[in-house]
# Entry
Amino acid sequence: MRVFPSIAVLAIGSMFHPLIVHAHGGAEHEAVDVMNCAKPPESALRTLPPPLPEFARLECSIRGQFLMAADGWTWRYPASWFDRPLAPAWTPDVSRQDADAKYFVELSVETLSGDAVAAPYARLKAAVPAYGGAYETPPPKLYRVSAENNLGHDMEFWFPEHGPGQMWAILCAPDCRPEFAFMIHKP
# Structure
């Protein structure tokens, strides 16, 4: 069997890939090739503020941190029963350009209700037709989650609560997009 030189170079080069790709001379953030979930970086978020733990939990993988469904809750995309949505620290498009693991360094929750819900609801309804079609009236309660990752990139996660166990999640980083929206419910 003949091995072509270009394939051999690629194979050898791939062994050193982490050393080449992850060099960040002068970078302002802490470079983390892969996330060590047992010993996360000191600046990594460790807990979620209320009310998020009611329906979300903070998880970790080698790619970094993400939010996912809390026990007893189901997160799913409108047209799928199989793909499980996440709200990752690498949501912003600019964050995906960096090969390092991403994690949350800051996360805060603001609860909106009454008249304060109208403007964000109109924005989310226009950006995500599936959500707008599901609910023609604003939710009684809307959670706005402001987050920042270790690269200094900001994102918003919106959680409209239309009733007990009936929610959506719409991720905006910075734009709210249909592919960043999913349903949340408690069976």
In short: DSSP finds five helices and nine strands in the chain.
